[in-house]
TrEMBL record:
Gene name of the record: fba
Organism: Eremococcus coleocola ACS-139-V-Col8
Descriptive protein name: Fructose-1,6-bisphosphate aldolase, class II
InterPro entries found in the cross-reference section: Aldolase_TIM, Class_II_FBP_aldolase, FBA_II, Fruc_bis_ald_class-2
Keyword terms: Lyase, Metal-binding, Zinc
Co-factor binding comment: Binds 2 Zn(2+) ions per subunit. One is catalytic and the other provides a structural contribution.
Length: 283
């Protein structure tokens, strides 16, 4: 059975580790990250962007697929199914109605009054169904906005409003992280992290988790992050493995054989990432 993020994130924050959100793209991808979670005895958040949701046939198909896998794979670790960067009230409600146990409502590119007000509407709807909500304040840079480096730091008072008035369960406070590849080493606002964490008390969410060096990940967790989102890194590992297979085996034509190395690469990378985040053996 799917669970919301609330309990797993509060537990993570209390105990100084972070739960990974791993974005999924298809059946095999979902099987791979669930395999990693179960083998590592780790809680996991399955991230589904609106684009990926649409690609997989819509939120109902995704929820049915994930629920069936939890049963047939005998998954016993806590699993949340989470809409990533939900763009509208309608879309967030559609995903909740389809059976998602968590949603991110991302109105960060709107003025704070509107962001808080719309988020509050989603929170009321979501909480009445036991579903958790994440919101974003400030701007995560990178591909999300079609511009590289378009970072806009979260304002601490706006973060406080989002938690107190908006009532969210966790908060993505943008502090220098970027979706996709980093140009050089990431520069994260660690002082601001501590300030926002202490001010709001909410578990913080780090977007753009791919390509952040381990020591910075550990520092971010120390300073209040309980959830870290990873997408690009898994895609790159999958592509590398599948490309290698195609390059090294000119006779292969069975799609199942072509993408099997991709599956193995995702399992390995996800397990490694869970170890770094500290969520292994925390289920
Ligand atoms: O919401 C998704 C994440 O923030 C993923 O970022 O693709 O840079 O790992 P990433
Ligand atoms: Zn993100």
């Amino acid at each position: 059975r799917l669970v919301s993020m609330t309990e797993m994130l509060n537990k993570a924050k209390e105990n100084g580790y972070a739960v990974g959100q791993f974005n999924i793209n298809n059946l095999e991808w979902t099987q791979a990250v669930l395999t990693a979670a179960q083998e590592n005895n780790s809680p996991i958040i399955l991230g589904v962007s609106e684009g990926a949701g649409k690609y997989m046939g819509g939120p109902k198909v995704v929820a049915a697929m994930v629920n069936a896998l939890l049963e047939t794979m005998n998954i016993t670790v806590p699993v949340a199914l989470h809409l990533d960067h939900g763009s509208s009230v309608e879309s967030a409600k559609e995903y909740i109605d389809a059976g998602f146990s968590s949603v991110m409502f991302d109105h960060s590119h709107f003025p704070i009054d509107e962001n808080v007000e719309m988020t509050k509407e989603i929170v009321e709807y979501a909480h009445s169904k036991g579903v958790s909500v994440e919101a974003e304040v400030g701007t995560v840079g990178g591909v999300e906005d079609g511009v590289t480096g378009g970072v806009n730091y979260a304002d601490p008072q706006e973060c406080l409003r989002m938690v107190k008035e908006g009532g969210v369960d966790c908060l993505a406070a943008a502090l220098g992280s970027v979706h996709g590849n980093y140009v050089g080493e990431p520069v994260l606002g660690f002082d601001e992290m501590s300030e926002i964490s202490e001010l709001t008390g909410a578990p913080l969410v780090l977007h753009g988790g791919s390509g952040i060096p381990e020591y910075q990940i550990k520092e971010a967790i120390k300073r209040g992050h309980a959830k870290i989102n990873v997408n690009t890194e898994l895609q790159q590992q999958w592509t590398k493995a599948v490309r290698e297979k195609l390059n090294n085996d000119a006779d292969v034509y069975d799609p199942r054989k072509i993408i099997k190395p991709g599956f193995d690469a995702i399992v390995a990378k996800t397990k490694e990432t869970m170890d770094i985040f500290g969520s292994s053996n925390k289920a």
